[in-house]
């Protein structure tokens, strides 16, 4: 993360628009259903899989991976909130060495924009979930898992919209019009 030494922004950024704040918080919600489904698998619930299909998920390594993936996805979604909160402009004081310093806008914009693009590509096929064969799932499981994963289609676009809002607030300076 690139930082500047001053503890507060030289010129305060405008307040984020209400839609951006809502979109940032919505990112954490769209990730939640799939994460909760994976946690059900970790806890031993077949969660839509046939007995044979569930065996691959009933190993220690698979459980660690699914739990880690669920936590990392939710943490990544929570980072989007930093684009509409003060800690996205000034590093919180409790962080060693860099706490209290300004966050350079592009240090937040570039990773957020790349993340938004990657998420959009990763989840682009989810609307067609039901067109792919899932022999290792029950018909009801196939339906439910498809529904639980549908919100992920919004993760990338929501992150992109919030990132653009952050960029406009922090980087684009509107020149006053002489009239």
From TrEMBL:
Entry keyword Transmembrane helix: yes
Membrane-spanning residues: 64-84, 105-124, 144-167
Keywords attached to this entry: Membrane, Transmembrane, Transmembrane helix
Protein name, per record: DUF3995 domain-containing protein
Natural source organism: Streptomyces incarnatus
């Amino acid at each position: 993360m690139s930082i500047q030494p001053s503890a507060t922004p030289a010129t305060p950024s405008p307040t984020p628009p209400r839609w951006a704040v809502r979109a940032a918080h919505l990112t954490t919600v769209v990730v939640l259903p799939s994460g909760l489904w994976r946690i059900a698998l970790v806890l031993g619930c077949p969660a839509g899989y046939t007995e044979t299909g569930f065996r691959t998920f009933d190993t220690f390594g698979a459980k660690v991976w699914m739990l880690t993936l669920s936590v990392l996805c939710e943490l990544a979604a929570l980072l989007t909130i930093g684009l509409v909160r003060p800690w996205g402009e000034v590093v919180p004081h409790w962080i060693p060495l860099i706490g209290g310093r300004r966050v350079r806008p592009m240090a937040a914009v570039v990773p957020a924009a790349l993340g938004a693009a990657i998420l959009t590509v990763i989840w682009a096929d989810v609307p067609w979930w039901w067109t792919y064969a899932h022999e290792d799932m029950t018909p009801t499981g196939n339906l439910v898992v498809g529904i639980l994963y549908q919100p992920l289609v919004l993760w990338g676009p929501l992150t992109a919209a919030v990132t653009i809002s952050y960029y406009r607030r922090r980087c684009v300076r509107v020149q006053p019009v002489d009239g």
